[in-house]
Amino acid sequence: MLWKPGDVIVERGVFFGSVFIARPMRVVAHAGDVLATSLTVGTEYYGLSATSREAVIDEFARGEVTWGMKTWDTHNVLILAREGDPYSVQAFWNEEGRFVGWYINLQDELRWTDIGYDTRDHALDLILGEDLASFIWKDEDELASLIELGVFTADEGTQFRRDGEAVLELMHRGASWWAPWRDRAPDDWGLAPELPHGWDVT
Q1: Phi then psi for 85, rounded to 5 degrees?
Q2: Using the 8-state DSSP alphabet, how is residue 168 labeled?
Q3: Using DSSP, how many helices (H) and how many strands (E) does the chain show?
Q4: In angstroms, rounded to a whole number, what is the distance separating the alpha carbons of residues 20 and 185?
């Protein structure tokens, strides 16, 4: 699958055969093995709602979370994904255009669809320093809770950690393939795209 700059595609997070999140994004580039897409402030997307970020796991376990349309309301994001990688790299710029950091989203390898790609978020993530010299693991407790709930297995949790450690190994040996994209933010993030018809069909 090869997308052209300007194409609108949909990144969907699919769990148990259902769409848990769907975000329309605009293709910045798709050359070689890297798909670069932009997620613009103001984008309307489909996702999960809870009373707070901290309460989401407990409310999910009790069946109290809801799904519906939401608005991406802070930071423009460049999302870099490669076929075969169990992660994507997210580069964040604030509304003033200043680069603010890197985020490693651990996830299933991309599965191409007619409207973009599907994946499955692994809960565990990494925040990397702007200079790619430091890092913080994120949402370790959330992953542990999801393993207890049976969403993931213990073996999957171990593999997710290994996947993150592989990213850190790239960073530590100066092989961060995503680093040049810090200087390739879109000059104009453009209008927020909309979810196309049929985005919820799996």
Answers
A1: -85, 140
A2: H
A3: 3, 12
A4: 28
CA distance 182 to 179: 6
Q: What is the pLDDT of residues 84-140, one digit of tens each?
A: 999 999 999 998 889 999 999 999 999 999 999 999 999 999 999 999 999 999 999
- Residue 131 DSSP label: T
Q: How many residues does the chain have?
A: 202
State CA 153 to chain mean position distance.
21
- State percent of the chain over pLDDT 90: 83
Enter the tokens of residue 71. Answer: 């608005």
Phi, psi for 112 (deg, rounded to 5): -65, 145
Q: Which CATH number fits domain 8-183: 2.40.10.220, 3.40.50.300, 2.40.380.10, 3.40.50.1360?
A: 2.40.380.10
How many angstroms separate the CA atoms of 57 and 80, rounded? 27
Are residues 4 and 27 in contact, defined by beta-carbon separation less than 8 angstroms? yes
pTM, whole model, 2 decimals?
0.95
Alpha-carbon 120 to chain mean position: 9
